[in-house]
Amino acid sequence: MLSALLMFRRVANAMRYAVHQEDFLNVLGAGVTLVLIGTISYALGEGWNVVDALYFAVATLTTTSVSDPNLVLDERWMKVFTVFYLLIGIGILVEILRRLGIAFVTVQAEERAAKKRGSDDTDA
Known about the structure:
mainly alpha
């Protein structure tokens, strides 16, 4: 439980750090917009409910398999849409994760430096 809370704190700190970096919110907004576009497209194009469309959009972008056998693209134009959705979307998601990774590493380094400074102060 304690390690989960510590990890949550680190992720929250990394997110807080990333939000203050140049253009991170633009990239994050592009990712959210992309998921919304996919959800709406799959809901309207295939006649799926919003939850199924959201699931399919996120599973597609994260390149995980869609485990629901009923969620199959029947429309040819939706298959073409999905090709471009993947080509654009994977790049955006990788950029979000790259920036969060940099933020996570930076926050960890700052925490270690602060801890070291604190132990140096108590040693003096």
